[in-house]
Specification:
The chain is of the alpha/beta class. The protein has ten helices and 14 strands. The N and C termini lie far apart (52 Å).
Length: 325
């Protein structure tokens, strides 16, 4: 296997612990350079993480001959431009979620990938974490029988504790994020539904701004129906009292249920009246299992752990769910 030499475009908070260090911990993978428009912050990141090179311009990192793959971790508004530029140069691309501002942009990247020698994978990294692999195994083995319905509840305060809050708060600026906290957090939930149940045959929803705290949705609801007959109902609210916060997925089958938090570390099964709770240790770098699969894919040694086409489907659902009432 050849070495996958990485450049990170956008070495912000998400790369500090969740992903950045993992690129040097995965076999056949090395972090060569980082880029951030703020040169001082780029240099500081490179110094602290022992990265050989840093840049303050995207073109510089794309033109570094030592780099053959880039990880795009900027706010979503610039994902498409960096992805298209990288693919035009034949570079492999690993893109943060949400993959783009909307489905149309995701489809544009998918078309560009077909014309490029570079490959594209998307950072829906929960697919490779042990906890969610266990949930999938339980579903596939029919441990709870035939899955009938799924309920997703993601209710948080106007300042969710699930994310790192930055001064610019770009997550609630639709021009940068595509929407609000729903656009930022729902890819974690919606992609897992696709991973568990396949591509939906129907989806519809609505979004509204109840609190008026910022200029985008803070309450979204939607429904998915899969070819197998599984029905998923989702509710996302980012305007409730802190005491009422909840992060839960409940999967109901003909023999029992599976429940888990998307941002937690335990899975509860209730099968024919018997409850079992399994705890999973927190990962030091939550993206490391996914990055390992991406490196294998880029090296031609495995399948794509999450394709741009799958991510485009997630964006189609997000577009449909966030239509105004």
């Amino acid at each position: 296997m050849s070495n996958i030499n990485w450049g990170i475009i956008g070495c912000g908070n998400v790369t500090e612990k969740k992903s950045g260090p993992a690129f040097n911990k995965v076999p056949n993978s090395k972090l060569i350079a980082v880029m951030r428009r703020n040169a001082e912050k780029a240099a500081d990141y490179a110094n602290r993480h022992k990265v050989p090179k840093w840049y303050s311009d995207g073109d510089e990192i794309l033109n570094d001959d030592e780099i053959n793959s880039v990880y795009i971790a900027t706010p979503p508004a610039s994902h498409i431009d960096y992805a298209l530029a990288a693919l035009a140069k034949g570079l492999n691309v690993y893109i943060e979620k949400p993959v783009t501002l909307n489905a149309a942009e995701a489809n544009t990247i998918a078309q560009a990938a077909k014309q490029s020698t570079g490959k594209v994978a998307v950072a829906h990294y929960r697919r490779q974490q042990p906890m969610f692999l266990k949930v999938k195994a339980l579903i596939d083995s029919e441990a709870i029988g035939d899955v009938r319905t799924v309920e997703i509840r993601m209710w948080q305060s106007p300042r969710p504790q699930l994310i790192t809050h930055l001064e610019d708060n770009w997550r609630v600026d639709p021009a940068l994020s595509g929407g609000g906290y729903f656009h930022d957090l729902s890819p974690h939930q919606l992609d897992l539904m696709l991973y568990f149940f396949g591509e939906p045959v129907y989806y519809s929803g609505r979004g509204l701004n109840q609190s008026g705290l910022y200029g985008c949705d803070d309450h979204v609801s939607g429904q998915l129906i899969f070819d197998s007959g599984v029905v998923v109902n989702g509710s996302w609210a980012f305007n409730v009292a802190e005491s009422e916060s909840i992060d839960e997925c409940l999967i109901i089958g003909s023999k029992g249920s599976i429940s888990f938090p998307f941002f937690g570390h335990s899975v509860t099964t209730r099968i024919e009246g018997i409850e079992d709770i399994t705890d999973y240790p927190a990962l030091e770098h939550v993206q490391q299992p996914m990055i390992e699969k991406v490196v294998s894919y880029f090296n031609g040694q495995g399948d794509n752990p999450c394709s741009i086409d799958e991510a485009a489907t997630v964006m189609k659902i997000i577009d449909a769910f966030s239509k105004p009432v």
